[in-house]
Amino acid sequence: MLNGKVAVVTGGTRGIGYGIVKAYLDNGAIVILCGSKKETVDHALSQLKEENPDYQVEGIYPVLSCPNEIKTAFEAIKETHGSIDILVNNAGIAARDKLYEYDMEDFKKIMDINVNSIFNCSQVVSSIMKEQGGGVILNTSSMVSFYGQTSGCGYPASKFAVNGITKSLARELGKDNIRVNAVSPGITYTDMMMNVPEAMIKPLIAQIPLGRIGEVEDVANAFLYLASDMASYVTGAVLPVDGAARS
Questions:
Q1: Which has the closest alpha carbon to 129: 68, 165, 184, 172?
Q2: Is 222 contained in some domain?
Q3: SS (HEC) of 48-70
Q4: What does the DSSP 8-state code read for residue 28?
Q5: Catalytic-role residue among 155, 189, 225, 233
Q6: CB within 10 Å: which end of the chain, N or C, has fewer?
Q7: What does the pLDDT look like over 118-150, one tens digit per residue?
Q8: Which bin fits 189, alpha (ψ -120 to 50), beta or left (φ > 0)?
Q9: Which helix (H) or strand (E) holds 41?
Q10: Is there a domain that residue 1 lies in?
Q11: What's the number of domains the chain is made of?
């Protein structure tokens, strides 16, 4: 589905991001995964090469809050591979702090990583995509972007912002043949979920009409569809992948 496409995936070293990287590689893309530090990037690359030595995958670790680092990294990718066809803004952090104890610096950190990094990466890559005649920008939202959560207001606030960026950029960049969409995962069985006791997981499953927690592959497949030509007339969408948990 993505033969010959060049994709950059931020937050690509674990969890959903790693699943997206693998789905893209399995569908013929050249993937540059982006992580927060060299050690985690190298580990992810090693894992991928163990699974399939023929994967065309590379790693980078620019500071996503620094536009100049992003510009340098993305321009190097364009120089090496000739294009950047897909950008997945997946890097993000979560928090559950109650308002009474919420530290403003922690709130700012969530906004910096979950919102500002999307702006920074999208601003740089959109110029590259416009010059080459088009491309796809995908953002990771969350089911809490629709109705919030009971504590840690910074995280849903950041994901509401992701939805706003997605819909606005879709309208702004459509004339340049750049599609912009988001995927809104529900509760997903990542490595973090593996540490959650079963007694806590069962009540969560009971609230999901499909009767199960989502798998990483469920979310990655949504990113695969939106990146592909099958979604050539889809832009400005926030696609829920949550088993109808929102209802």
A1: 172
A2: yes
A3: HHHHCCCCCEEEECCCCCCHHHH
A4: T
A5: 155
A6: C
A7: 999 999 999 999 999 999 999 999 999 998 989
A8: beta
A9: helix 38-51
A10: no
A11: 1
CATH number at residue 92: 3.40.50.720
CA distances from 228 to 1, 27, 140 (A): 6, 10, 16
Q: Residues 18-56: pLDDT tens digits?
A: 999 999 999 999 999 999 999 999 999 999 999 999 999
- Domain of 186? 6-241
Give the C-alpha separation, 137 to 126, whole Å: 8
Q: Provide the token pair at 71.
A: 């510009």
Find tokens 């796809």 and name the residue. Answer: 136
Of 243, 242, 222, which Cα lies nearest the Cα of 234? Answer: 222
- Residue 233 within a domain: yes
Written as one string, the DSSP assignment of 63-131 is: -TT-HHHHHHHHHHHHHHHS---EEEE---------GGG--HHHHHHHHIIIIIHHHHHHHHHHHHHHH
Q: Nearest to residue 31, comparing CAs of 41, 116, 174, 165?
A: 41
b/e code 139-178 from CB counts within 10 Å (16+ = b):
bbbbbbbbeeeeebbbbbbbbbbbbebbbebbeebeeeeb
Residue 186: exposed, middle, or buried by beta-carbon count in 10 A (0-12, 13-18, 19+)? buried
